[in-house]
Amino acid sequence: MSEPLIEAREVSRQFESVEGSIKVLQGVDLCINPGNTISIQGESGSGKSTLLNILAGLDRPDGGSVVWGSSDIANQSSSKLARIRASLIGMVFQSYYLVPELRALENVMLGGRISGMNTDLKERSKALLEKVGLGERMASLPATLSGGERQRVAIARALISEPKVLLADEPTGNLDEATGDSVMGMLQALCVDANVALVLVTHNTNYAARMDSAWILRQGVLEKGS
Question: N or C: which end of the chain has fewer CB within 10 A?
Answer without folding.
Answer: N
